[in-house]
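Course assignment 3, question 2. Fill in each field.
Student: A.L.
Task: Predict the tertiary structure for the chain below.
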Amino acid sequence: MSRGRVIVGMSGGVDSSVAAWLLHEQGWEVEGLFMKNWEEDDEAGYCAAEADLRDARAVCERLGIPLHTVNFSAEYWDRVFEYFLAEYSAGRTPNPDVLCNRE
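Answer field:
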């Protein structure tokens, strides 16, 4: 019997992978969520988000849990990165985490 459902933000890295595994082992109904927050334009053809998504997908497949993907690139640009640039240009030290954590 499931202890309940939990969504884990999957980055493709060790921390989120272990968190998903531990919750799964403890009997939670785990679902993964991968958020793309940046549109790469890499001339070398390397796309970090694709590699991260591939890793997150592999972990979720191994655990037998679903993985949902969402693209927040436009929202990130509008709500976080433009603020960062404006603050930096004004000579201040921006803290975009404050904006992200507020919502």
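Instructor remarks: The first strand starts at residue 5 and ends at 9. The mean pLDDT is 88.
Grade: pending
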